[in-house]
Amino acid sequence: MKRIIAAAVSLLVLIPSLRAQEDKVPTTPEEKEKKLVEYIEKEVERLSASLEMEYWQEFYADSTMSHNLHAMQDELENLQKAAVQNPDMYIAVHDKWDEKTYEAFHGFLTPVQWDKYLKQGALRAKLARDKRAGIEPEKPAKGKAKKAPKQKKSKKK
Predict the structure, then answer these.
(1) How many angstroms separate the CA atoms of 118 and 12, rounded?
(2) What is the SS3 assignment for 89-130?
(3) How far, in Å, CA of 70 to CA of 64, rounded?
(4) What angle do CA 63, 64, 69 make, to 5 degrees?
(5) Among 1, 118, 136, 150, which residue carries the largest CB count within 10 Å?
(6) Which residue range(s) make up the domain with 99?
């Protein structure tokens, strides 16, 4: 009898938690779009605050992330619809769009902002993408361009 009561109580506790999990997973395209837009807004706010972005940089960050994340989502959905089982293909799609975002941010961030962005995890993510792609890991250029090596002056006779 105690086992039956214990099982009934555990079911009563388990059912609401399962329903809560169902509520968190977006099921309709509208819910997915809303979640994606919310994520982009939060990420742009975070980057803007931590990198001290100007208004026009916030606009570029928002535009870049909106385009790239929507494109990535479309590609991932196409893979899912095609019933692709290989996880490497999904990772390759993520890496492709993450790299495009990385390159776009490098284009509009100042050298100081770029250094901060790299320190916030972009550098680690870049190195991981390069390693997965089989590219020799090389630290990306920091905000300032490297100086060209000094050339030796040749003596004319």
Answers:
(1) 48
(2) HHHHHHHHHHHHHHHHHHHHCCHHHHHHHHHHHHHHHHHHHH
(3) 10
(4) 105
(5) 118
(6) 15-133
- Tokens representing 109 are 């961030």
- Distance of alpha carbon 126 from alpha carbon 27, whole angstroms: 32
Contact 73, 36 (CB under 8 A): yes
Count of structural domains within the chain: 1
Would you say 144 and 152 are in contact if contact means Cβ atoms under 8 Å apart?
no
Stretch among 10-24, 26-40, 60-74, 126-140 having the lowest mean pLDDT? 10-24
Q: Tokens 């803007």 belong to which residue? A: 48
The verdict on residue 27 lying in a domain is yes
